[in-house]
Design brief:
Elements (H helix, E strand, L loop, with lengths): L3 H15 L3 H17 L5 H15 L12 H25 L11 H22 L6
Helix pairs in contact: 2-3, 2-4, 2-5
Length: 134
């Protein structure tokens, strides 16, 4: 018979495993926002941003988690998030100097750096935390 505390632990563990890529999704969003805001053609920095965006869209799928979605659904979801953020980045660039002050142009990169540091911390904690031996 399960106790209430045991049932709570199982549901919390399952919810963490189901949302295993939430932190990398935020990094993907802010990276795509920065790409949309700073894209001026296919220059070297834009190519590196696009390659990094593609890698960040695919690689978190291969993190060691028990319950994974179908890969096609994963790519469609991450692609929609990236496309939406690129569109927001383009609109953000158009609003700089008109609606928003020009100093706000650094906001997407600042948020990208903060979310990347938090994501790195969460991933390392997940890899290094102690687990019970089964």
């Amino acid at each position: 018979m399960k106790t209430i505390s045991h049932v709570g632990e199982v549901s919390a563990r399952e919810s963490v495993e189901r949302g295993f890529a939430i932190d990398t999704t935020f990094v993907l969003f802010f990276l795509a926002l920065e790409l949309g805001q700073s894209f001026r053609g296919f220059t070297l920095d834009s190519v590196f941003l696009i390659l990094t965006l593609l890698v960040l869209a695919v690689l978190p799928y291969f993190l060691p988690v028990d319950d994974k979605p179908v890969f096609r659904n994963w790519l469609i979801g991450r692609g929609l998030i990236a496309a939406f953020a690129i569109g927001l980045g383009l609109m953000f660039r158009q609003s700089l100097g008109v609606v928003l002050p020009e100093t706000f142009r650094f906001l997407p990169m600042t948020l990208l750096i903060v979310t990347a540091m938090l994501s790195c911390y969460i991933q390392f904690y997940g890899f290094l935390k102690l687990r019970e031996v089964k």
